[in-house]
Amino acid sequence: MIYNLYLHPLANVPGPKLFAISWLPRLWHQQIRGTHWKNLVALHEKYGRIVRTGPDEVSNASAEAWNDICGSKTFVRDLNFLRVTQLDEHHGFISPVKKEHNTVRRLLQPAFTDRSILRHEKILDKWTEKLRLNVAEEQGRPIDIAQKLVWLTFDIMGVLSFGESFGCLDHNFQHPYLKAIELGAPFLSLLQIILRYKATRGLYDLFLKLPWMKLWNSLRVTAEAKAAKWIENADESRNDVMSIIWKAMQDENTTISQRQADDLASILCLAGAESTPVLMSGMIWWILSTPHAHAKLKEEIRTAIQESSEITVHNVSKLSYLDACIMESLRQHSPFSIAIPRIVPEGGAMVDGYFLPAGTVCGVPHWASAHLKSNFADPEMFIPERWLPNPGPRYADDKKDSFKPFAKGSLDCIGKRYVKLKRLNISLNSFADDLRLLAWSIMRCAWLWPHFFGTSIWSCA
Fold first, then answer.
1. pTM value?
2. Quick one: which of 111, 227, 289, 453 is 20 to 30 A from 50 by CA?
3. Who contacts 48 (Cβ-Cβ below 8 Å, separation ≥6)?
4. pLDDT tens across 44-66, in order?
5. Do β-strands 445-448 and 457-460 pair in parallel, antiparallel, or remain unpaired?
6. pLDDT (tens digit per residue) in 108-119
7. How far apart are CA 322 and CA 393, in angstroms?
8. Which of 114 and 295 is assigned the larger pLDDT?
9. What local confidence, expressed as pLDDT, does residue 456 receive?
10. pLDDT confidence of 441, banded at 50, 70, 90?
């Protein structure tokens, strides 16, 4: 206790003394009460842009921190945080060796370029129209639009990755994979706790054998089955992501193992089931709850687009207010509310003006950095105008560089260009009268933030 408070290398970093002494306060607020992501705002407002949140952990909330942590080639991701994915830690996507990570990243990069999105525009159009028709079939009855968006993105990722959908929208079907995420994901937080402390790490393999882990393990089984089915009928001309992986598996210069291919298939499935629909449902909620933003977005879209056939990637990319709405939705409704932790390398490093010793866990929490009054004026309000080139005097001094929803550097989100799908979908939502009126009829929404991950789920009645 005395060492942590007064002799530890982080003793000079401001923060609550209880957090410096023990991990228990952090665990209580994050894993039990589920409020750590919100509490970080109050901590940063009180102590400043860097706060000690654990015996060997700090939270950062500034643009400088993004540069110090993610602009460096030496900071690595915290494997105790990522190991629960059960992806291969060696020569794979989560490898702490950046060279190994970048090898896999370069392999996938062609699937996430602007050119690739344009090539698959007809697929995006087809599935966005399916969503519109699916909602229209409800004939004005209240719906859970968040669920429909999960089905949309999961089906699209199935088509783009494996050449076939998962059948959710076509059959109004909650795929077992999605059920497993909903029921199994909270247990991952428990596994992260076990991995976080040396005294409990020995229990990790034991916990993996417990019955409830069958839910999480079933996710990998689903992904591997999709990959195996594709490989069984391999066709490089299909131009989906698995065709890129397959080519690499046959290339003697960049050989990808079956385990690596399975890992990538697992990542692709999970990507389509989580972050994108969280953002899209949040965006619809914020726009429909903010009359001036709804009216302005509708006017921009209907002025630029005369009929639904004109809703294309090229046309919607010119809509500046739509882009501003997307950025403000990311700020208000970030799919990932906490920091993706990084580890300070050997020799230590300067972050936010403080020297952090090797092994320190650090990172910028997305939601907290976006809701500090020192970073954004009126942080609780939905103000898309703050992201426009001329935001007006009140928002001109917003520190936008303090918020990076896709992270920064060589480990940033490879699928960030996938935001074009959101543009298409939101454009169609605002263009179609039936969907707009139906969405406005959904007024009783319970917006819940689960204790374990801080991702948003809202159901409507």
1. 0.86
2. 453
3. 14
4. 999 999 999 999 999 999 999 99
5. antiparallel
6. 888 777 777 777
7. 21
8. 295
9. 30
10. very low
pLDDT of residue 388: 97
Q: How far is CA 348 from CA 57, 104, 108, 362, in A?
A: 13, 28, 32, 12
CATH of the domain at 343: 1.10.630.10
| Residues 137-181: tens digit of each pLDDT | 887 777 788 888 889 888 988 888 888 899 999 999 899 888 888
**How would you write the chain as a 3-class SS string?**
CHHHHHHCCCCCCCCCHHHHHCCHHHHHHHHHCCCHHHHHHHHHHHHCCEEEEECCEEEECCHHHHHHHHCCCCCEECHHHHHHHCCCCCCCCCCCCHHHHHHHHHHHHHHHCHHHHHHCHHHHHHHHHHHHHHHHCCCCCCCCHHHHHHHHHHHHHHHHHHCCCCCHHHHCCCCHHHHHHHHHHHHHHHHHHHHHCCCCHHHHHHHHCCCCHHHHHHHHHHHHHHHHHHHHCCCHHHCCHHHHHHHHHHCCCCCCCHHHHHHHHHHHHHHHHCHHHHHHHHHHHHHHHCHHHHHHHHHHHHHHCCCHHHCCHHHHCCCHHHHHHHHHHHHHCCCCCCCCCEECCCCCEEECCEEECCCCEECCCHHHHHCCCCCCCCCCCCCHHHHCCCCCCCCCCCCHHHCCCCCCHHHCCCCHHHHHHHHHHHHHHHHCHHHHHHHHHCCCEEEECCCCCCCCEEEEC
Q: Note down the domain range covering 251.
A: 2-460
Identify the pLDDT of residue 69: 93
- Residue-level pLDDT at 402: 96
Q: How many domains does the chain have?
A: 1
Q: What is the token pair recorded at 344?
A: 């300070």
Measured distance CA(385)–CA(406) in Å, rounded: 20
The single residue listed with the structure tokens 């809202």 is 458
Could you report the per-residue pLDDT of 172-211, keeping only the tens digit for each?
A: 989 988 888 877 777 777 787 788 777 788 888 888 888 7
Tokens 């460096």 belong to: 72
Structure tokens at 297: 């977005």
| Least confident among 337-341, 359-363, 441-445 | 441-445
Beta bridge partners of 76: 343
Closest Cα to residue 104, out of 275, 254, 272, 250?
254
Strand pairing report for 76-77 and 342-343: antiparallel
In angstroms, the Cα distances linking 310 to 132, 151, 301, 302 are 16, 24, 10, 10
**Tell me, what's the pLDDT at 453?**
29
Residues 41 and 371: beta-carbon distance below 8 Å: yes
